[in-house]
Each structure stands twice: as structure tokens, then as C-alpha cells.
Amino acid sequence: MSRLSIRALCVASVGLACLSPALAQAPGVSATSIKIGTFGALTGPGYLYGKLPMNGVEVVFDEINKAGGIHGRKLELVREDDRCDPASAIGATQKLISQDKVFAIVGGGCSNPTLAARETIEKAGTPFVVFASVHDGITTPPAKNIFSVATTSTIESQAQVQFALSEGAKKIAVVSMRDAWGRARYTPLMETLKAKGVKIVADEEMTPDSNDATAQVLRLKQAGADAILMVLYPKPAAIFARDANKLAFRPLLIGQTGIADPAAFEDQVGVPGATAKFRTISMVRYTPEDPAVEKWRKAIETKFPGDRLSVYNQFGIGAAQVLAEAIRRAGPDLTQEKVVAALAGLKDFNVDVYPGPISCSETDHRCHKSPNWIMKEPGGPVKVLGATRVE
Amino acid sequence: MALFGRRNVLLVLLAVALVLPAVANSYQLYIGNLVLIYTLLAIGMNLLLGFAGQLAFANAAMFGIGAYGTGLLQVHFGLPFAIAFPAGALIAAAVGLAISFPALRLSGLYLALSTLAFAQFTQWIFLHWEGVTFGAGGFKTPQISFDPLPVSKPVGLYYLSLLVAVALYIFARNLVASRVGRAFVAVRDGEVAAQSLGVDLLRTKALAFGISGFYAGVAGGLYSQALNYVSPEGYDLFQIVLHKAMIVVGGMGSVAGSLLGAGIIIIVLELLRAVKGAQEIVFGGILLVFVLFLRGGLISVIQRYVKGWDEPLHAAPPRRDEPPPLAVPATPVAERAAP
Amino acid sequence: MMLSYILLSGVTTGALYALVALGIVIVNKATGVINFAQGELFMFSGFLAWALHVQFGIGYPLTLVLAIAGGFLLGVMTDRIAFQPLKNVDVVSLVLATVGIAFILRGVARVIWGGKGDYLTFPPITSPEPIMIGEIMIIPQQLAVLAGAVLIMALFWLFFRYTRAGKMMQATADNAKAATLVGIRTDRIYALAFGTGTAVAAAAAVLAAPLTLLYPDMGFSFFIKGFAAAVLGGLTSLPGAILGGLLVGIAEALAGGYIASSLMEVSGFVVIMLVLVIMPSGLLGARRLRRV
Predict the structure, then answer these.
(1) How do A382-387 and A74-81 pair as beta strands?
(2) Residues 6+ positions from C127 with CB-CB distance below 8 Å
(3) Residue ranges of the Leucine-binding protein domain (chain A) (predicted)?
């Protein structure tokens, strides 16, 4: 939104805050603080991608504030719930922008709500860093002020297919959830497969609450699949791995960031050895057990007693570090345009939790392109296999 | 007529609603629009459950069908909103008519479960009929404009919702006072008795389901434009809880209560944003408090204390001296157990 | 071979549904209502057991006993809060009150356990390695679930048939007024019904958790499936609950195995719609005479 129309809005809404000259260009900024909004599911099943990353954002802000803030301004986080519901996400972002008057937003859990809210945020011109939603439509075609540090679904799909091919798979099959989360990945996955000329031998489906995968396993076994791309949450994936093991079906199991903790996954499957051929992508560099994230584990577990640091927390940690860096680079005379420009100009910026550097540009707002392959030998430690670079 | 009579209060509310766009920010306008849309849903639900006594769980499905119908007719056939919107509502009404046939044989919890199953089935269609519905990813609806009227889209849409809500509110008021409305109540209070009075059960139930479906469908069409986006999770079981909560909070068997309930629930949900992360706990608690301490809904309280609130209540009087109502609402247990 | 695996998986999944359905039927048998928080009570008891067993290291038998006791208390609380004050009002209020409780339980579980990981694992009582029975591989815990469901059914069948409390429960369900007249404290009977219904859910959760994993939102899908199973079986029949659960499970497995796995989720609902339209009082429900 241009400055002119923001002024017009100020006049129209008779907001007193607008009359103070220092704030004319930058909502949510005072001499001592910057208001940052976040939205995602605080309640309902989507909380993994909402509440937990927000906790990550919060500990980063705490750390920055303890060190004196950014150019003397403390970061203040305003949380809004979207219940993973598109209508509620629009309400949440409208509130953040026109009522709370936040300076920037870091958030976006479930994909569909974030996609629905895109228009509101784009129109307002508020700088927005997506921390967890992976739907391509959020960043493609790019909106001037919206950047994603989640590996978008196209990037992950390409990585999954490349990985299967590089492991010598001949008969690739897909088992997927077709809810909003699964569908956001399933469609680009199919497109990638088509583009690479790969014909899949079977295409099966599970629901997030599935308790049995015998039928799916039998069908995949009949099709003779040797690599299975799993577009599943950890629960159905664990059920699938368990039943595949039961039926002595042992193909390569290829996961994605939804199942980003192989150690937890081994527990969830619960059958020794059933995860021996499981490989997955981590959007973040370390599994939560890695000593290298010690600092953040301590921060999360002190601030939220009873919680343990999860990969979901790390989504938020990374996104918050990226946004904070952009605000820092925008300088003491803060405007939203400067932050947007700083985000677009981020080149090879290294963040504590991501496997590769963050690079955005004017034309490509998918800033995280280094999906990291990890695995766990049964009973052994988690091993990093290396990052796939996708263009 | 008393100063706080129903008509005066409603006129004041209408006046407030008319000037809202001039004073509200875009967030408040959006919430205002949602209140109007949910008023339609609550009235539709109330006609079916509060008046005709049919414990159905398919309202969210009708809401979805209206939204998908309106959106998809625009996307696939390039129809203008002005045609797609009423057509979507009529499709929802037709589906409502269709599910009234099983309702003829079922009552109480069995009707509840079969309509719940239907709602789940509809969700599954939204998710899996990908060629038509675009699956779980949903789709963006075409932008509509209110040219040549000098209003922006959100304001225009708000006034459209207001116009529709007022018209359908008046229609519902007249309906429940008519022969049809009395037939609804007769069916609710006893199907056999109603039949013996010459009420055509099939026709009456079909009308109740059809009209309720139409209200939900209209709401769906408006909702698709308010969001500019249609996807399955907007029409899931949480919506059923919302609609039911609205009429119980406002008052079963009262059209004005539907308005009240919709307004309160939507505003409460928004105010609950203040309790960050504890919404579901507080929302559950509020539901309990309303149900436990405000039986008959707010409208019964208003009717008791405010003179001139002359709406004839169609709610059945609470039966305090009887054993629990079993599966069938509004049917005394003694009768049910009798041979 | 394929068919036997499919049928077996239908039976083992169905046993999970049957466990939930039993709790629903026990409450319905005495009170004539459906507790919409049943799924959440199942979930919450599961988390309680997890806390006792995994966090505090309490042994398995004691965990089971404590979870059942905790479930009983939760059930009695549900009765006192939602059912007693509302039993004479209307069904919709009652449904909403139990839905309110469901929201609260889900929210509280999320606050307490939601930060501990996405899906919590509960160690199985049996060996995790699959075993061979004839030509078929099966996971021992699935047999435990099946056995548990049958055992619970048998216990309650005996309870309703041979104990005073069981007979009082049935008398109350048949005609509460008459039951009061012959001196039955119906309010206690209702509390007992909700208590035992939830205690069954707790036992079910301990048995099922190793297979289903624990997460705050697991209750709803189990409730829907359990509700479906209970209705198929006629809502008041204990063997009906088991039969209904197995039928829903088998329908899902057959649709998934022979048609398409996308049909698994919806096949249960299609069966319900058909059965209810053709046989409105379920498979084993008492035929109700049309009231005049």
C-alpha cells in the first residue's frame, strides 16, 4: 500500500496514533518498541504448525530484547489464532493490520488459511515472513511483501523425486493424505513426477487419523513398488511403516518435513527395525536432540516448562531470525518498504536452524531451498545425509 | 408499544448496521459481515430444529454446498455472481429437500447420526471430486464489483448481506406465524398428533429441510465472497457446533433469538482472541454456562424482563417434572416407553 | 491370502471402534443420551495413563487401575456438570453441554501435553514384533485390543444381567419415573452410568494407545466411528456395539483393499446412511413400537 493511501486510511479512521508525526509511515513502531504480529492455529489440530512455531518466535524475540532490541526498539509479539480455518485467518490478519496496527507479520501455519489471508496482507503491504505454510500459491506468483522461509511444497516435491531417483528407485509409488496439507504437496509432487517422466506404479491414500494401512500396503506390494513417497503426517506414516513391516514389505520410505524427527518417528512406529529404510527431509538443520541447538532448547524449555524443543519450534526460530535481520538492515529510520526491500535483498544469510543459507530476490520469494536429508539407523543416532539443492 | 419493544430495538439495530461501514475499520466491517451471514445460518437452523424439531446435523453441509455452488458456477461456467448466487442457494435447498426423505423414517439421535454421516460424506466429496471442487486446496472466487454503485467491494458486499439478511428475517417472521409455521411446531410437538390434525408430514418436513437448506445456501454464497476463497475446512463439524450454539444461546424457536445468538457467538469468538491459546477451553466453558444457566436462551430472559418484547415464543415449555427426554426431543418419555 | 489380511485388518481396526462404542452404549443404556465428549474422555484418559506410566514410571497394572479410576471420576464429573442439570431440558442443550466439555478437555490436554511432541508413544504391553498365526502375521497388541473389547463386553453383559446395580440401571433406562417409584435413586444410577462408561473409555485408551499414538485431537474421529458402530448395533446392545465396530472396520478395509484407499474414510458413513434408512433401529436394537 502506498504511503498516500495509508495517510488516507488514517484520516478516514480518525486514528489518533496516526496524527503523531513520527509514526506516520510505520504502524506499530514507537521509539522503544516494534509490534510484530503472528497468526496460525493456537487451537485445534493445526497447533503444531501455529502455536509451536510461535513459541519459537517468542524465544528469539526474548533473546533480541535482552540484548537491547533492534536499534533500541524492543520486539513485541501479538498472537492471533486462525484455528486452521480460512475465515478465521482473514479475521486474524485484518485485526493484526487494522486494529493492532502491527509493523510486520511472521506466521502462517496451515496452508489454506494462509492462502486465504494472502490478499489481505498483500493489499496492506505489511512485510510478512511465512514460517510454516508450504502451499506454492502463497509465494507464487510473488506478492511484493510476502516471503517464505518454509521449503515450499514444489521444492520438497522435487527433492523427494530427485532423492528417489538418485537412490536407484525403479518403481516409485505415492501414499498421501488428501486433506489441505496433503493436497498442497500432492499436486506439485504429481507435476514434478510428470515433468521428470516418472510413471508411478501406485497412488494410495490415507487420512490423518488412519489406524490401519494393511489395505494400502497390500496394494503397493502387489504393484511391486521399491520406493514410496510418503505425503503423510507422522501418525499415518507410522501406521504405514508398522503395517509394511508386518507384511514383510521393505521399500525405501521417503518422507518430507511433516515427519522431520526420525528419532521420534522410530518411537512412533514402535517396531524395532521397521524404520531402517526410512529417509526424510528436515527443513531445519538439526533434529531436536542435536547438541548444536542447545541454546534454543534451553530457551524453549525455560520459557515453556514441560515442553520439549521440537522441529516445529525451530520453524519459528528461523523465521524470526530472518525477519529480525531484515528489520536490523532496514536501519533505525524504520519503514515497511525498507524492510520489504531488505528481505528481498537477503543473500546467503545463515540462520542457526536452517541447513542452507536463506536467499531471497525480487522475483523469487521462496527463500529456503535447501531441504536436508536425514535418517536414523535403528537404535543408532540421527545421521545427516546432505542437502538437496533445488532450483 | 414500550420504548424497548422488539420493533424499536430491531430498528435501532438496523440503523446501527446501516451506518457501520462509515465508522468501522476493515476488520470490524468483516466481522459485521460475518454476523449477518451467521444470522442467516442461525435462522435456517432454528426453523429446522427450534420450530420443526428435526435434530439434523447437515446444516454445515448445506452451507458448504451454497458456497461451492456459487463459487463453482462462476469459475466453471463463467456465470456472473448475480446468477450464481441464487442458483447456489437453490442447489442447497434442493439437497435439503432430498435429505428430508430419510428424515421421514428417522428421528432423534438416529436422524442426528444419519445427517452427520451425510455431512461427512459431503466433506469427502469436496475433498475428492477434484476435477470439479479443486479438492482440499480450495479455490479463489472471482472478484465481484459493485459498479456503478460508488462503494468498495467489502462495503458493497456488507450491504448486500444486510439486505438479504433483513429480507430473509422478515420472511422467517411471517413464515412462523403462518399455517406452515404452525405445522412445523405441530410436527415437533408430536408427529402423530400433527397427522391427526391433518398436517402432511412429508410435505412439512420437506419444507422445513428445504427452507433451512436455502438459508444455509444463501449464507454460503455470501460467505464465499466475503472470504474470496472456498475450501472444505470452512464447512466442517465445527460449523455445526457454531450453528447449534447460536440458536441455543439466542433461543430455540425464536427468530429474533437467532439474530441475537449469531451476533453473540461471533463477537464472543472474536473477543476470545484476547485469551491467546485458551480459546477452546473458554469457548467450551461459555457453551456450558449458557446451556446451564440461561435455559431457553437469552431471548427468554429478555422476554421475562423487558416489556413489549412481544414475539410469540414457539419454544416448548420446559418439562421439569418429567424423566429425561430420551432420543427423541420434545417427546415425553412415558409415551415413548409405552407399548 | 489378500482377503484374509484385509478381513483381519478390518477386525483389528473394528475392535478399536468397538472399544469406544462400548462406552457410548453403556451411557446410553442407562440414560438414553449420547455423551458427545466420549471421544475426548477417551483421549484424556489416554494422556492420564501416559503421564502415569511414561512420565512418572508407574507400572503397567497400577497405571491401568489408576486410569480406570480417573476415568470413572471424569465420568461422574461429566454427569454432575452436564447431565444432571439438563436431563429435563432438551436434547440439543445436552448435546451442546457435552460438546462444551469436549472442547475444554481438548484444550486442557493441548496445554498440558501439546508441547511434548506431535504424537506421543505409549509402550505396548505385548511384544512389538509381529507374530505368525497360521499363515497370517499379526501385531500382538491388536489381539490385546480385540480380547479387551470382548472381555469388557462380557463383563458388562454379566453386570447388566446378574447384578442389582445393573438391573437398576436398566430399569432406570426403561422408565425413570417407575424406577423412582420403586425406590431407585436414579441420580446415582446416572452417575454410575457416566462413571462406568468413561472408565471403559479409559481402559480402552490404555489398550489402544500403543497402536493409535496419543494426540489432543484423536478423540473426535474415534467418537464418530464409535458412535457409528453403536448406532449400527442398535445403541443399547453391548454385543451390537462389538458387531457394529467390526462391521465398520471391515467395510473400511474391504473398500480400501478392493476398490480404492480413498474410499476407506467414507465407506463407514455410506454404510451408516444405508443401514439407518433401511433399518432405522440398528441391527440388534430393540424394535421400538410406534408411539401413539
Answers:
(1) unpaired
(2) C140
(3) 33-367
pLDDT digits (tens, 9 = 90+) for C110-142: 888 887 778 888 888 877 788 887 777 888 888
The partner residue sitting opposite B121, judged by closest CB among C224, C269, C289, is: C269
Mutation site, A110, A175, A214, A218, interface C, largest C CB count within 10 A: A214
Compute the distance between CA of residue A17 and CA of residue B282 in angstroms, rounded to an integer: 32
Name the residue with higher pLDDT: A389 or C87: C87
> Looking at the domain that runs over B6-337, which CATH code has it been given?
1.10.3470
Interface-testing mutation among A38, A90, A126, with chain B (most B C-beta atoms within 10 A): A90
**Cβ–Cβ < 8 Å for C102, C39:** yes
Model confidence pLDDT, tens digit, residues A139-169? 988 999 999 998 888 888 989 999 999 989 9
Nearest-by-CA chain C residue for B317:
C89
The DSSP secondary-structure symbol of C208 reads H
> Which residue of chain B is at minimal alpha-carbon distance from A94?
B27
Q: Which one of A52, A233, A261 has the shortest CB-CB distance to C115?
A: A52
The rounded distance, in Å, linking the Cα atoms of C252 and C261 is 9
Domain limits, chain B: 6-337
Q: What is this model's ipTM?
A: 0.86
How many residues are there in chain C?
Answer: 292
| Domains of chain A listed by start with CATH number | 3-151+291-344 (3.40.50.2300), 154-282+372-387 (3.40.50.2300)
**Between chain A and chain B, how many beta carbons pairs sit less than 8 Å apart?**
96
Q: pLDDT digits over B213-253, tens only?
A: 999 999 999 999 999 899 888 888 888 888 988 998 888 88
Count of other CB atoms within 10 angstroms of residue B339 = 5
Question: Domain spanning C2-278 has what CATH number?
Answer: 1.10.3470
Cis omega before residue B102 (within 30°)?
A: no
**Angle separating helix axes A234-246 and A262-269, nearest 10 degrees:** 50
Q: What is d(CA B308, CA A141) in angstroms, rounded to the nearest whole number?
A: 58
Q: Any idea where the domains of chain C sit in the sequence?
A: 2-278
| Spatial distance between the Cα atoms of A320 and A340, rounded to a whole number of angstroms | 15
Q: Which residues of B touch A51 (CB under 8 A)?
A: 277
d(CA B121, CA B101): 17
Q: From residue C52, how far is each of A151, C118, C127, C193 by CA, in Å?
A: 38, 19, 21, 25
Are the Cβ atoms of C103 and B277 closer than 8 angstroms? Answer: no
Whether the CB-CB separation of B100 and B85 falls below 8 Å is answered with no
Q: Is it the case that residue B308 has pLDDT exceeding 70?
A: no
Question: Which helix (H) or strand (E) covers residue A252, if one does?
Answer: strand A252-254
Task: Please tell me the distance from the alpha carbon of residue C292 to that of residue C279, in angstroms, as a whole number.
Answer: 21
